[in-house]
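Quick one - inputs below.
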Amino acid sequence: MERNPLRRQLQIMRKSLFDQGYLDEQFVQLEELQDESNPNFVEEVVTLYYRDSARLILNIEQALERKPYNFHKLDAYMHQFKGSSSSIGAKKVKAESTLFREYCKSGNGEGCMRCFQQLKKEYTTLRKKLEAYFQVARQAGPMETACRPK
Amino acid sequence: MNSSGGKGSMSTASSSAAWKAVDSVPDQFPAGLRVLVVDDDPTCLIILEKMLRTCSYEVTKCNRAETALAILRENKNGFDIVISDVHMPDMDGFKLLEHIGLEMDLPVIMMSADDGKHVVMKGVTHGACDYLIKPVRMEALKNIWQHVIRKRKNGWKELEQSGSVEEGDRQQKQSEDAEYSSSANEGNWKSSKKRKDDDDETEDRDDTSTLKKPRVVWSVELHQQFVAAVNQLGIDKAVPKKILELMNVPGLTRENVASHLQKYRLYLRRLSGVSPHANNLNNSFMNPQDETFGPLSSVNGLDLQALAAGGQLPAQCLATLQAAALGRSNAKSSIPMPLVDQRNIFSFENPKLRFGEGQQQLMNNNKQVNLLHGIPTTMEPKQLTTSQSIGNINMQVASHGVQSSQNNSSLINMQVAPHGVQSSQNNSALMQMGQPQFAHAPRLPLSLGQPIISNGVAANVSTQNGIRENIRAPGYNPVPQTSSMLNFPMNHASELPGNSFPLGSTPGMSGCISKGTFQEDFNSEIKGSVGFMPSYDIFNDLNQHKPQSWELQNVGMTFDDSRHSNSLQGNLDLSQSVLVQQGFSSGQMSGQNRNAALVSKAMLSAGDSTEPGNPLNASQHLNSLPVDNTIRVKTESVADVTDNLFIDHFGQEDLMSALLKQHQGIAPAENEFDFDGYSLDNIQQDQINGIIRTDE
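Output:
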């Protein structure tokens, strides 16, 4: 009984994440990897992502404090960050990363800075949403396996 | 694959063949496929691991390339396939790919978030069997086993082909299966090619999936043998069968060699990618960078092997040049070994270069001709051009005007002139020239006591480094510097109109070469200095351009000892001269000298062995015989000599100009290096002759 509403809530949350473009297909891939042997796989991966990417965010921030910008380095950091973000399906974050790299390539420091601010916003927003989602998921129980949003 | 397409089917099919590897793959292949995944991103790594596990593969993950290599080395047959990220902090993914391909011969899949065309292309050229764009999906991983089968299948196919066609096939397979020992199959090789089709059908090994070929470990020594064999045959003529025969390693199959050769070619191509494409020849070896082959060419520090391998200039070319030069030796100007292709030279020089031999060659005048014109060549056609050019270069170098000799104009890149001139293109030409030449006359008797890289080299020397002084020295005598002045045996005087092979005339040459290089008279006097003058430039250029591997530096060093002691100048076996260049290292070119030394070493070795492969020995041999390796040396020395300019780009024009300049500058002192009056001749000549003789 309890589970149903929780599951229902979970599904609603999940759908909204996809509908609003926070997550993409890659997230589903992660969900498909989750099974009885790894009931919290998705949450573990996302936690790992946030932990590891925080380092990259910091690096980029520091690099943006040094003028003139070392675009090559910035691009390299962002390349890594993008790879990571895309592997968990963080759609909006990935889009901002791509944009950031474009600015780097064209040497647009202002653009980089603005873009980075936006990226951090998306990054933080996603984290909050996912944290809430996982909280519900844990409460809802491990039985539920993600199904493709169709 | 014949397998019916299903995973299971393959295994069953295999049972029929005796192919099953000893450590047979479980029947449920591809389940149990042993995968090593390398990625510095922990998130991706954990996801990949989970995905692969879900495919029922056996996964090992690591986040550093070095660790991955260590794991693979420790457990040679412990993995079936490797998946690696492209961008990693400790080592470039492509580099790892190369290592794995050469050492373990495992299929490698590259991954990256980067889907740019050039990156994917890089994967292809480096030999990756697939390229995945991140984020990686499960579907993409599900089918990676196909690469394992494919690789095995191809391997088997080769075996089959090589094996005898007659019923031996089956047996072969089995024996092969057992251990790829080639002994059993060797006999079969001959016949099999045709059977390939037939065999394929039959053997088609369904069980390729289960096959596990014993992997051949390409140890350093084995690889060195391989490279030596390749150099000996000439990169374009190196066919697995012949290489195998030359290597004469029991248990090695033609197939092993073939796949290794393929990788090696890729490697060479990559190396030379940096070099100017103008000559195309050099492409292959122009960029010796490889670490993989490091050990091989460590001899002189020069990446002779790389050079040799990639090289267009087979040591032989050098040798030839040298020989030619020597042949003429008395003649006037020895052919200035075209330093041009130092790179080439080196590549071919392969460790086998023995300078000692080179010397002898020098003595042979006949060879000279080769040098210049037809530079023998192990080099491939395109290389030949270079080789010819080498000859040309020599000629040109020597004679100011690039000798028409070969069309390879590129060869002459010997531009004596400023290193810069050479820029890659020349180098290639030069390099090439070097090689082909060496092919024939592998050893240009470097008789130099002092490597008087007369031809051309001298020229270069003077221009480039300051060797000018040397050149000027009226006595070209053995380059003051350590002078390995390899006087390239520009004996060709006649032929090489001044072939002052731009043997990277190391500074040493300056002294000696002075004569030779000045193209004009090279012929006449080339005695020792043959064309070095220009060569210097060339070398310089080469050196500069040379992609790293030219560790000629060592080469140069050796020259110091080279017998040249000084008279080389006259005869400068070109090869010697090259050496000389190295000799130079003694003083003039800090970097160059080293190179020169290296080169000379290489050359020497080249000279000796006639085979390009001894660049490594060059140093030792330098003394003995820079001759034919002069060419080799050139490459090497060139690199070193002038900072590696030589080899890279010997622009003929440059060389010539350089030579001319030198000539002019110095000329007064000595005869303008025309070699006519090779001043050296008096003393040096004797010395040279003596040297040459002794060498021989």
